[in-house]
Design a protein that fits this description.
single chain, about 280 residues, mainly alpha
Length: about 280
């Protein structure tokens, strides 16, 4: 038996009372839904807003498609049902906020300067505030108690460790080859620095820490795991879509990436199914 762990109110509840923090988190999240829909919709309808060259516009187009057709509806659905007491929806809410932070960090720091710049900054910062306010009032033990013993915990943790450690090795190996042997990374030096920095900070630590906590049956493992798995699966869907768009536009070297990202999306979704499917259906 684990002793009950109630998350300290930290920043969210320190700024506002607990109920007010929850209301503020939801209101900010609804604003994120609206702004994401606007950004992605305009990006698809008027791609000339992007001033990037080469394969990058195809990447933004694929990214906008997944954001508008998958991330926005998921976040909206999660907000509606989390407000009715669904813990599954609450975890999806957090995962989609995590997706927004990760996704718009790419736009904010990687896109050529364009008319969306203030929107990128807002969509990077607002989900962070919403997560602080929401997670500051989370009872990790109560959420962990919603999972049944049928959860394939070891398989899911293995997938998370493989993903986290694999990304770490892949990026650090390319960095070492460039730093000490002068070998140019496969995606170029500047894109590599952005992508590797994003994965080594926003993905790798959370996949590895979540897996370890899950294996140890720590309540926080049951909170981190569904968030990072769903966030990761959504973004590999972005990579699959962007690679497909680039291949259709004749960008060399992208066709070979489609089956890799597609396979990893399927694996990630299976892991998410294993996690969310192991939760009791009753509300919080």
């Amino acid at each position: 038996m684990h002793r009950t762990l109630t998350a300290a109110p930290i920043l969210g509840a320190a700024i506002l009372p607990r109920d007010s923090a929850a209301v503020a988190a939801r209101r900010i999240s609804w604003l994120v839904v609206f702004l994401m829909a606007v950004q992605a919709g305009v990006g698809i309808a008027a791609p000339s807003v992007y001033r990037d060259t080469g394969w990058v516009p195809a990447a933004w187009y694929g990214n906008d498609l997944v954001t508008l057709l998958v991330a926005v509806p998921l976040l909206g659905w999660a907000l509606l049902w989390a407000g009715r007491g669904s813990v599954r929806a609450e975890l999806v809410w957090y995962a989609m906020l995590g997706y927004a932070v990760y996704n718009y960090a790419y736009y904010l720091f990687g896109a050529a300067l364009n008319a969306f710049f203030p929107l990128y900054a807002a969509l990077f910062v607002l989900p962070v505030f919403a997560l602080i306010l929401a997670l500051g009032r989370v009872d990790a033990a109560a959420i962990a108690g919603r999972f049944t013993v049928a959860m394939p915990r070891r398989w899911i943790a293995g997938y998370m460790l493989f993903t986290g450690i694999g990304l770490a090795i892949a990026w650090t190996a390319q960095w070492a080859a460039y730093a000490f042997a002068g070998s140019i990374p496969s995606i170029g030096v500047e894109p590599f620095q952005l992508v590797a920095a994003m994965d080594l900070t926003f993905m790798v630590p959370w996949f590895i820490a979540g897996a370890i906590l899950l294996l140890r049956r720590n309540p926080w493992g049951f909170l981190v795991t569904p968030i990072i798995i769903l966030k990761g699966a959504t973004y590999t869907l972005v990579l699959t879509t962007s690679s497909t768009v680039a291949a259709l536009r004749g960008v060399e070297g992208t066709m070979e990436q489609i089956p890799i990202w597609a396979a990893w999306t399927v694996i990630g979704l299976l892991a998410a199914w294993g996690v969310f499917g192991s939760m009791r259906p009753s509300g919080r």
